[in-house]
Amino acid sequence: MTSRHTLFLGISAWSLIITSVTTLVAHLVTFDAPGFDDKILLYQNWGYIVRNDIIIIHCLLVIVSMLGLGLLEVRKNPGWIGIGFLCFTVFGLAEITRMTATNIIVNGMREAYSKSSDGFTQDAIQHFLEITWPAIGTTLFMIFILAFSLGCIFYGIAFLNHRWVGKIFLIWGIVNLFAFANSFLLLSWLDSFMSVFSYTYQPAARLLVGVWFLKEVKRRTTNSTAT
Question: pTM score > 0.90 for this model?
């Protein structure tokens, strides 16, 4: 491997390890805003804005890490890796779009509502925030969770020859399909299970695969140098 290729793979491995932390932020840091008036004030909450920015960074790190990880196996399983990485890219773009729109468009609407004294303007903004945006946000989330689930399954198939690495991805993807299905089923017990799964299995899986990825890069670099 060339030094630049090794550098990129190393960055990708560390990106995956870092996502074990950023995923905890995404799933554990929440902001209680039960009512419409509470949600309006979120545009002033810098913690809320920064959390959304961290999720954007998280998605970028996932895309980079999955590209690097895929390069390890792309010669043996180009089809599975190719379609898997496409799914991870769709996942990232969907969530980046949702979080960016929240910080810019939705928070802009909230600020406009807060500062407006015109009833017609406030009604129009309230309709967007309570009807239009939830529909858009839910659609993006559905794309996000389905694409991620399929990406994990395809990578799981591609990495089955690496034993537990492939199994981790397969379990991850299949369980996340249940989260996608629960968007329609609305089972409270499944929602609770997925919540725990998100802040236990996911960060552990990212860390384990990330450490393995880093060791694999070092091993292949050593073998390449020796050769």
Answer: yes
The answer to whether residue 225 is domain-embedded is no
227 residues of the chain, pLDDT tens digit each: 678 899 999 999 999 999 999 999 999 999 988 899 999 999 999 999 999 999 999 999 999 999 999 999 999 999 999 999 999 999 999 999 999 999 999 999 999 999 999 999 999 999 999 999 999 999 999 999 999 999 999 999 999 998 899 999 999 999 999 999 998 888 999 999 999 999 999 999 999 999 999 999 998 888 766 65
Q: Minimal CA–CA distance to 66: which of 132, 155, 182?
A: 155
For residue 149, give the nearest of 174, 167, 126 by alpha carbon: 174
226 is a domain residue: no
Euclidean distance between CA atoms 191 and 174, whole angstroms: 15
Give the number of other CB atoms < 10 A from CB of residue 168: 22
Structurally, how many domains does the chain consist of?
Answer: 1
- Cβ atoms of 198 and 27 within 8 Å: the answer is yes
CA–CA distances in Å: residue 30 to residues 23, 33, 64, 128: 13, 9, 26, 22
- CA nearest to 137, candidates 1, 22, 39, 21: 39
Of 80, 88, 94, nearest to 19 by C-alpha is 88
Range of the domain at 138: 3-220
On whether residue 176 sits in a domain, the answer given is yes
What number of residues does the chain have?
Answer: 227
Is 77 domain-assigned? yes
Residues 156 and 153: their CA atoms lie apart, in Å, by 5
